[in-house]
Amino acid sequence: MTRTIQSQSLRRLGLLGAIAAAYFAAGRLGLWFAVVNPHATAVWPPAGIALAALLLAGYDVWPAIMVGAFLVHLTTTGSVPSAVAIAAGNTLGGLLGAYLVTRFARGRRVLERARDIFTFAVLAGIVSTAVSATAGVLAIALDGLARWSDFGSIWLTWWLGDAVGNLVVAPAVLLWAQRPRVHWTRRQALEGAGLLLSLVVVGIAVFDGLFPWRGDHYPLEFLSVPLLLWAAFRFEPRDAATAALVLSGVAIAGTLAGFGPFARPTYDESLLLLQAFMGVTAVMTLVLAAAVAERREAEERLRRLAVSDPLTGLSNYRQLVHALEAEIKRSSRTDREFAVVLMDLDGLKTINDRFGHLVGSLALRRVAETLLGSCRGIDTAARFGGDEFALVLPETGDAAAWHVARRIAERVARDGEQPVISVSVGVAVHPRDGASLEGLLNAADRSLYDTKSRQRHRAQAS
C-alpha cells in the first residue's frame, strides 16, 4: 500500500513538473512575438496549455501553472512582485475558464458537439481571459514596466493573445491528449501529408511574403479557408484543430515580419486583425469538424440499429440473413461446409409470468452475452426472433457445431445468476441439411424441435 501511494505521489509530481515546464517553454516562445510591450504578445500559448491541463487533470494542478507563469515573467521582468501578480492572474484566468467550461460546456468533452464549441469560445475565449489580462496589465503598470497611457492597447493585446491561446492551442492539446494514437491507412497518411504541405505552402504564400506579391499585401487570406474545410470534412476534430494551429503559426510569423494581408503601419492594428482572423478561423474549423464528427456518429448509430437487435446487441434477423447468404455463396464456391446453430430459451413465458418482463429481458441478455463470449471473430451471433437465437459457424462441421452448441448450453445453465435458465439447441449443416437459406433454417428448426422433444421425454421419464 505504501509503495502504491508513493508511486502515485511520484506520478503526480511528475505531471505537475511537466505542466510547469510546458507552460514555461510555451511562455518563452510566446514572448518572442511581444512587440507592443515585452509582456503582451500576439498569442499566448500557455493560456491554452493551462486550460487544457485544468480540464484534463483537475483544478489541483494549479500550483504547476502558478510556478510556470511566475518563472516566465520573472525571467522577463526581473521583478518578483509583478511576476507573482501576473502569475496569480494567469492562474485565476485558467481556473475560471476551466470552471466555466466544465459547468456550462461539458468540460473536457466540450469539443465533441458544435453547440458547445460556441459556448467554449465565449467562456474561455472572451470571459475568463479578461481576468488574466486585467491582472497582468495592472501588475506591470503599477511596477512601472508600462505607461498608464498605454493601458488600453496593452490590455487589448494581452486579452486577445490569451483568447487566441485558448481557442487555437487548448483544443489541439485537449484532443491530442484524449486521442493520442493515430490509426491512419496509407491513403489517409498520404492525404494528411498533402494537407500539411498545402497549409504550409499556402500559408507562406499568403502571410510570409516569399512570393512575387510580397510587398502588395493582397487580401488573400481566403485562400486558407478551403484547406481548413478540407481538414474539417476529411479528418477528425483533432487533426482539424492541428491544421488551424499550423496555419496560425505561419500567419503570426509572417504578419509580425511585416508581410501578408494583415500587415499595417502600426503593430496594434496588425495584431488586432491577425488575432481576429485566428480566433474566427479556429472556431469555424472546430465547429465544422465537430458537426461532421456528430454526423458520422449518427450515421454509425443508424447503421448499427439497422443490423443489430436493440435488446441484446446481437445481429438482428436482417443481418443474419445477410450472413447466411454470404456463407452459402462462399460454401458453394469453396465446397466447404458451415453450420447453423439455433437456440431457444426454455420457459421464457414462465419467467415473465413469475418474475416479470424485466427479468425475462435480462434472461435474454444473459443468453446473448454467453453467445458472444463463445464466438470466434468470424462467427455471427444473432437474435432470430422472440426467445430464439442463431449462430452461424463458418467452416464448421456437424460434430464441431454440436460441441459448440452444448458448450453454450452448459455455460448458460451455470452462469450463476437467478433465476436459473436453460436453452435447447439444434444444428444444421450446409449443404447436407439444406442448400438454400430457407431449407437450412428449417432443418435447424427441426433439429431444435427434436432436441426439445427428447428433453421433455427425459423429464417425464424421470
Report what the structure shows.
This protein has helices at about 1-30, 45-55, 60-75, 80-105, 115-125, 130-140, 150-180, 185-205, 225-235, 235-255, 265-305, 315-335, 350-355, 355-375, 400-415, 435-460, and strands spanning about 340-345, 380-385, 390-395, 425-430. With about 450 residues, the protein is an alpha+beta fold. It has 2 domains: about 1-305, no CATH class; about 315-460, Alpha-Beta Plaits. Strands 2-3-1-4 form a 4-stranded antiparallel sheet, with helices on both faces. Helix 2 crosses helix 4. The mean pLDDT is about 90.
Question: What keywords describe this structure?
Answer:
single chain, 462 residues, alpha+beta, Alpha-Beta Plaits, four-stranded antiparallel sheet, 16 helices, 4 strands, elongated
Strand order of the largest sheet: 2-3-1-4
Which class best fits the helix and strand makeup? alpha+beta
As for the number of domains, it is 2
Low-confidence region ranges: none
In short:
The protein has 462 residues and is α+β, with helices and mostly antiparallel strands. The protein folds into two domains: 2-305, no CATH class; 317-461, Reverse transcriptase/Diguanylate cyclase domain (Alpha-Beta Plaits, 2-Layer Sandwich), CATH 3.30.70.270.
SSE arrangement:
Elements (H helix, E strand, L loop, with lengths): L1 H30 L13 H13 L4 H16 L2 H25 L9 H14 L1 H14 L8 H28 L7 H22 L17 H10 L2 H20 L10 H41 L9 H18 L3 E8 L2 H8 L1 H17 L6 E6 L2 E6 L4 H16 L9 E8 L6 H25 L1
Antiparallel strand pairs: 1-3, 1-4, 2-3
